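Bug #77: duplicate submission created two jobs. Keeping one. Sequence:
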Amino acid sequence: MKEIALHLLDIVQNSVTAGAAHVDIGFALAEDGMLSMSVRDDGCGMSPEFLERVRSPFVTTRTTRKVGLGIPLLMQNAMQSGGDVDIQSEQGAGTVITARFMTRSIDCLPLGDLASTMASIVMGCPDKPEFTLRCSSPAGEMVFSTEEVRAALGDEVSLSEPDVIIWIQQSIQEEIEPILGGIMR
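Kept job's structure:
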């Protein structure tokens, strides 16, 4: 994967597959340049046995192939930059994956197009789960919530409507640019 935002897409897909009703996504950039990406869901969680093995590329829940590269690649990219990955999960309660990237490292991936990634996530799952995106840095913070957008639009308008998706992408982009703009590309 060439961008951190693409790792986000993969991890969020795991949350959706796990039956999550809420997926909370966070990006926090510290003054020292460490970027933390977290994905917290309330899905089915992982058994302790599966959690021990999930870091291996030869472990997957998919039946169409025998390898799962999402988490191993995330770990590799985080560690190459001087960061790490932490996975906590409880069966029946959900999962939290936190990846840290040292953005000042020459080996750190760019954040990428987080706004378009979030718009794609919402477009792919317009009804459920609910998504919250929180971004923070010394420059400020922002919060985006599909629950708030849904409440403002009412029941008659789907979050998958093209005009709504364009608005979501543009709105997120405007809000995160001053907060995370220096690490996006």
